[in-house]
Structures are given as structure tokens and as C-alpha cells.
Amino acid sequence: MAGSIRHGVSPLTDYDIFLFKQGTHYHLYEKMGAQKFTDPADNTEGVAFSVWAPNAQEVSVVGNFNGWDPGAHPLAARWDGSGIWEGFVPGLNKWELYKFHIKNSHGEYKDKMDPFSRAFELPPRTSSITHWPEYEWHDGEWLAHRGEAMNLSAPLSVYEVHLGSWRRHWDDGLSLSYREMAEELPGYCEDMGFNAVEFLPVMEHPFYGSWGYQTLGYFAPTARYGTPEDFMYLVDELHKRKIAVILDFVPSHFPTDDFGLARYDGTALYEHEDPRKGYHPDWGSYIFNYGRNEVRSYLISSAAFWIDQYHADGLRIDAVASMLYLDYSRRDGEWVPNIYGGHENLEAIALLRDMNSELYGRFGTIQTIAEESTDWPMVTRPVFLGGLGFGMKWNMGWMHDTLEYMSLDAVYRAWHQNQLTFSIWYAFSENFMLPLSHDEVVHGKGSLINKMSGDWWQKRANLRLLYGYMWAHPGKKLLFMGSEFGQGLEWSHDTACEWHLLQKEEFKGIQNWVRDLNHALKEYKPLYELDFSGEGFRWIDCSDWHDSVIVWWRKGKSNEEYILCAANFTPVPRFGYRVGVPRMGFWKEILNSDSTQYGGSGIGNCGGMESEAVECHNLPYSLQLSLPPLGIVMFHYDTRNETKNGNEA
């Protein structure tokens, strides 16, 4: 039973307020919102409420514990000018519904969510819920060795998942819960060789159709699939299988729902007053005021919260370009220049740098990944060198060029060879991740397999070729769910992936190919160790546009191993195709996308071959290969298994 509210009882200290107002308090989730607290005066347990609403005239906490009576538990404004209202309610426990009842600057009464709420009612209901974590983690071993899995020279293959539509119950069509996902997803990823999962935003969002990108609960996993402890269990189970968890994080905008952050105290508190800076025309949402110190503390605290409290191993920051440019998606006259007259958002740049500095400085072994769609310089370079400080960046240019090329009929590809080869010119300017994400299979874009050119056999061969080219290209890998077996329909958040297709051999073949690519990625160091260095890549021939063939090699940090890759982007097999190599000896064929087990025609190289002392491509030795139609072959060479003496090129 809740007791009368007490004022002057708070976990917030003067130092907390100093940091909050300075914009450098990155542990706010331990202090604000609804905190489990004990009054030191008499050891009474209860909940300490606090909310930032500097322009409010009155604030009270209402909930099921006081009959939603605004007069029952009024909060008091702190004396220090912080704009924070607070109060302690004795006897209150977990799972109580509540909101902040605010008389705003215009004299209007509004019931608002708690910006720091740890849990919410199931949408469309909007109440916050008192909650604090009570979960016993079992991933200590993973966290102790996370740096080995997440460092930039480790193999990383990411499976992108939307929680609501990965799998569904066959009888009622409902989504799996967090705990049901925990029973199926970790084992599937382990079998398929994916060593990381990236979840589309799990943070609470009022509109399911936004996929989580219209976030309001910056400190709460959505209630659609269970409790906060249930989501912790899912993360824990993934970690037990040595699978990293990356969460999408959206500091770029927030929805305009009246119960949320919008006009929180009657003024543009979290957003800008000027719509030219504070309203996003593409998404119909508000843009955070990154120059306001309290907002900076709020957002960076949220980013740290998911790593600290939910053991996330990385954050993928959504729509970074929309943050960096004041004129993003705006015409002349619809944006306000910065103090120097430019279009760069200086406050957002500072926020991103501070966020990355805090996360890497505090947690060390995690990664932040930018979805940045322009050529903004030094996105993945350290802050102390003038960069934004991200660990990786999505390579949107590679994705667009490659998918456009693969959609061309093979007869036209000879005139577009540069779309395959251009990416290497800039491949090492940033730490790139190659994304074939959810964005490429929605809104009428079609599924990946239906982007491929040709008849049904050629579409499947092209898709396998695309994946082989992607896995052999420098950069970490990301693939959206359903694409790993060639799902035919474009993704819908209202239905599950087309798992029934795996009853057919042609789809199982694609799945087997992705599985083998993932396992090869982890087995062979040349495929991952130098993803971000030109030392790990060399063209052997990128100029055979007439036959639409490209040949290259990958190597790791040592000079002992090589992976030779040859890709034929036409349906015409190339027999006796001579390729230069740097070593004499046996080159073992480790992967062939045209193998019959993947649904191909079975043209290959009998498991490998000895190189010959015939100079080719300015290299001293060569192989005469059979290049399968619309196929890629990969060969492994280990100097420790040389059959003859040879010299490195």
C-alpha cells in the first residue's frame, strides 16, 4: 500500500545535478525516473520518482496505487534550478502502473510517460511501470572474452532479426515471446554459423509498424514479447552460444505522440522549437535538441544503459546522416545553417563523439556501428584524430552498386564491371560492414532473390554468387532474416519468414551455401583478419570485363595463408581459365557456389589443383581453372603445406 509522498528524499545528489546540467551525466538511469529507494531517515522502502520538466507549473505522480488521483502524490520542484520534480512514495513496489500528471507551461493538464521508465504497458496502452532488474546473469565467461569476438580483426557475420516476425506460432499467427525466441534463435544462429544477432529496435514504441524506429521508451524493451527479465534471458542464451547481441539505437528522432516526449512540459524540451531544426519531414517525427545538455545526458545514458543493464555487445546507430546534416531531406529555406554558415550539425557531431568516447572508454570491448549513407569523412576514426569514433560503418555504396549490378541481365554486365570493382577503391577508407539489410527487402523493393536477373535457375545461382562475392569481399557481413534461404516474398512485419520453403531442395541449397560461407569465414583467417587493411586484398584481374570475371586474393596477418577467389558473372562456364597465383603448390578448392549440394550444376575443379610454373597476371605461377556459370570458387593455400619451393609475389 502506498504511503503519503515524502519530499527531500531522493537518490539525486548535488553532483548528479551538476553533471546533468553540464550534459555529462551518463548514468541517469540509476538516478531518475522511478527508482527503488530506501529513506535513510527510517529505512522505509519505496519508490523515488523524479522527472525533468522545468517549465511545468505542477507535477504529480498518478497510478493504480492512488486511484489515478492527481492530488494524492504531488512532486516538488528541486531548489537548485535543475527543473527536476521529485518525491518519494513509501511502500511502493515493482509492477505498479504510473504516469506523470503535468500542468504544463500553458496551464494544460497532460498525463505523460516517464522518459526513464524501465517498463511499459502492452501497447496501445501507455502507462509506465515501476521496475528494476532482478535477473541472475550467466554470461560471465562471454563478457570476459567478448573482446576476442568483437575486435576488428575477428570474423563477424551478423544475422539481422525483427523480433515480431522472425517466426510465429502456426496456429494463431502470434509472434514468439522473448523466451520462445531464446529456445529457437540461438541454436539456429549457431547451426548457420552466424556469430552475432542484430535486433531491429527492441526499445518500446507505440506503433508496431515502425519496426521500433519510432522509439519512445529509451530505457525499456517492448512489452510485446515479454518482461525486461525475459529479454535479458534471450540475451543470456545467445551469449551462452557465443553469439554477440547488437541492438539498433535511434537517437535521430522520436514520435510526436502526446503522451510521450513531445512538448513534455508544454515547451520544446527534448526537441527544437523551430520546426526547421526540430521536425523531420521524412518520418513526421521530432528531432532531438542535441545542443541541450540535459538531452545529451539523456541520450548517452540510454546508449550506455543497454550495454550496462542488458549486456548488449554493440549498438547500430540508425540514420546517422540525418543527424549530421542540417539540410538532410530539406530544400533551400527549410533549414537553418550552423554558426559558421555551413550545413553540418555541430551539436549532433559533438553528441556522437561524446557517446562513442563514453561507450568505448567505459565498456571497451563493444562496437558501435553507424548507418551513415553519405561520404562523411572519418566516421570510423578515433575522436582524438577528429573522427566520429564509431567502430564500423555500413557500406551503403557497395550495397547499392552490387544489387544494381546483380539485377542486370548477364549480357549487359560487361559494360558495368566498374560497379563490382569500384568498392575496392574506398574499401579501406573506413571500417566497413557489408549490409544486405531489412531496408533492401521492403516497400516494393522485392526480396533479394527476386532482385536477381534471369530465369529461376539463374536467380538462385546469382543469389549464391552474390553471397559468395560478399563473404569474400573485405568487410564484416550482415544479412537480414529470410534472405539466408532465398525467401521469395519481400519482408512483412505482420508475417513470419517463409520457413516452409525449406521443404524444397532449391531453398535448402541456398541455406546450406550461407551456412558453409559462415563456417569458412571463421575457419580461414585470410577472409577476416585484414578486413580493414589493403594489405589483406589484391586484385589478380579486375579488367576482364568481356567475360565478366573478377579474380582476387585475400590474406591474413601472416604470409602463410591465401584465399584465391574467382567469380564468373555470366551463365557461360569458363574452362581452362588461367589465373596467376603467388605460390607453387596445391590450391585446395574450399567453396564452390555451383556445387550440386547448393543447387548448382556441379562444375568445379575436382577439389583443387597444383599450380604450374607458368607466369600469368604478373605472377610467377598459375592455375587453369574451371569457372562455373554464375558461380564463385574459392581456393585455400597454406605455405606450411607447400609441395614445391615457391616465392611470395
List the helices and strands and how they pair.
Elements: H1 14-22, E1 33-39, E2 44-52, E3 58-63, E4 76-77, E5 84-90, E6 97-103, E7 109-112, E8 119-120, E9 128-129, H2 140-144, H3 146-150, E10 157-161, H4 178-192, E11 196-199, E12 203-204, E13 217-221, H5 228-240, E14 244-249, H6 275-278, E15 279-280, E16 285-286, H7 293-308, E17 314-317, H8 320-324, H9 346-363, E18 367-370, E19 392-394, H10 396-406, H11 418-421, H12 423-426, E20 432-436, H13 448-451, H14 456-472, E21 476-480, H15 505-523, E22 537-544, E23 549-555, E24 561-568, E25 574-581, E26 586-592, E27 608-610, E28 621-627, E29 631-638
Parallel strand pairs: 10-11, 10-21, 11-14, 14-17, 17-18, 18-19, 19-20, 20-21
Antiparallel strand pairs: 1-2, 2-5, 3-6, 4-5, 6-7, 6-9, 8-9, 12-13, 15-16, 22-23, 23-24, 24-29, 25-28, 26-27, 26-29
Q: Can you tell me the overall shape?
A: elongated
| CATH homologous superfamily identity of the domain at 14-129 | Immunoglobulins
Q: What is the distance, rounded to the nearest whole angstrom, between the alpha carbons of the first and last residues?
A: 79 Å
Strand order of the largest sheet: 10-11-14-17-18-19-20-21
User: Helix count?
Assistant: 15
Number of strands: 29
The CATH class of the domain at 14-129, by name, is: Mainly Beta
Rounded to an integer, what's the Rg over CA atoms?
27 Å
Task: Name the CATH architecture of the domain at 14-129.
Answer: Sandwich
